[in-house]
Amino acid sequence: MSTPIFDWPIQVLTPAHPAFWPQGGLRQGPDSASQLQLLDTLDGGPVWMARYAQIPVYCRDRVLAAQAVQGLAATLGLFRVWRRPAERGAVLGGVVGGQVIPGVPWSDETSFSDGSLWSGVSTVASITVSAELYATIVQVTVIDGAEIEAGMEFSVFDATAGWRMHRITRVLGVVGAVSELEIMPPLRFDVSAAQVADFMNPSCTMRMTNWQTFLQMLEWNRWADLTAEFEEARW
Fold this sequence. Notes:
- This protein has helices at residues 60-74, 216-220, and strands spanning 5-7, 17-23, 26-27, 39-41, 47-57, 78-82, 123-127, 137-145, 153-158, 162-175, 178-184, 196-198, 203-208, 224-232.
- The radius of gyration is 18 Å and the shape is globular.
- The protein is built from 2 helices and 14 strands.
- The chain starts with a strand and ends with a strand.
- The strands form 3 sheets. Strands 1-6-13-14-5-2 form a 6-stranded mixed sheet.
- Strand 10 (162-175) and strand 11 form a beta hairpin.
- By secondary structure, the chain is mainly beta.
- The protein folds into 2 domains: 1-89 and 203-235, 2-Layer Sandwich (Phosphorylase Kinase, domain 1), CATH 3.30.200; 117-200, Thrombin, subunit H, CATH 2.40.10.170.
């Protein structure tokens, strides 16, 4: 029986400050008594870590949702965690031809130091040719929208491993609508031709690492700003 994967309830537990970063090492081996895993080797490249900070929990629905996700995490449930939580994303609609916001601030509603904002882009793409587990070079076909650039991120889906996120480190070449890309981390599973590469709102299957203390501030107060911390689940 595979580990269940649940969507993080982003419409209710919305972080003011979401963050993702890569951390070296491949998590493998059995879970420890604390239900965490130890860093072992670097064979699989870096793993994604994430933090959803300043999640306001000040009403009944949010308290119940927070208690529910803690319960799911305690029973080893996994979560689909979004790189850019839907409420803050640059893209509206999530479909070809969806409306795109021309200028988007950071999650705390501020701009860059020079006053500029993010430019919302919409890219709909798919895998061009199949690639194997741990591949670091993939080909992607742009179906609609903006061209692919280094630094952009996308996710792919597998029925067992769930959603896995990758960052483009280099664009090696472009022929027509097809781009050859170097990615980080390596693929977590085999991908097939025509498989969707989700640039619209990338996500990753992750384990909540601080579930034991997640509700601590809420237990002490009637309301609180909570923080959820995650690490990429094994594949």
